[in-house]
Amino acid sequence: MSTPSDQVPPSPPPSPPPYEPTDPVAPNTDDKNIAMLTHLSGIIFSIIVPLIVWLVHKDRAEKSYLVTEAKEALNFQITVLIGYVICWVLAFVVIGAFLTPLLWLFNLVFCIIAAIRVSQTGTYRYPFALRLIA
User: Fold this and answer.
1) Are 87 and 100 in contact (CB under 8 A)?
2) Is residue 89 within 8 Å of 96, Cβ to Cβ?
3) Which 3 state secondary structure label does DSSP give 23?
4) Nearest by Cα to 71 from 53, 46, 44, 48
5) Sign of dihedral through CA atoms 113, 119, 121, 124?
6) Residues 75-105, buried b or exposed e (16+ Cβ, 10 A)?
7) What's the CA gap between 41 and 47, in Å, rounded?
8) Widest CA span of the chain, in angstroms?
């Protein structure tokens, strides 16, 4: 016959250690601001600013966050640029004249969303971008 002391449930396993980020280089405020401006610059300057930021910082390990965001902005702006070329070709069939303002609005909205997300959470990935720069 078993006694009540024999029926004690086992103790729960120990809790896991607190989460620590694996990236040793966390983005500082300056890098976040530059990344935000890089995303916003696509509205006016297309691929120029993201390309410059990426080329200047791509070989520096401490700027990996900024390189990632610049590549993301550059990939999106290349995608938009391809869209403008397609609209230009379709302008000869008249439909491109209607698609060009929509593409401009699409670029405006997604650049603003990216800048807000980068300033709040630190990163953004465009949903409709060709990943040409890896």
Assistant:
1) yes
2) yes
3) coil
4) 53
5) positive
6) bbbbbbeebbeebeeeeeeeebeebbeeeee
7) 8
8) 92
Token couple for 125 = 């990935």
Give tens-digit pLDDT for 17-52.
554 444 545 788 899 999 999 999 999 999 999 999
Please tell me the total number of residues recorded for the chain in this structure. 134
Alpha helices in the chain (DSSP H): 29-45, 48-57, 64-90, 95-120
The whole-model pTM stands at 0.78
**C-alpha–C-alpha distance, residues 125 and 116, integer Å:** 12
Which residue is listed with tokens 């720069």? 133
| Neighbour-count burial of 49, counting CB atoms closer than 10 A to its CB (0-12 exposed, 13-18 middle, 19+ buried) | buried
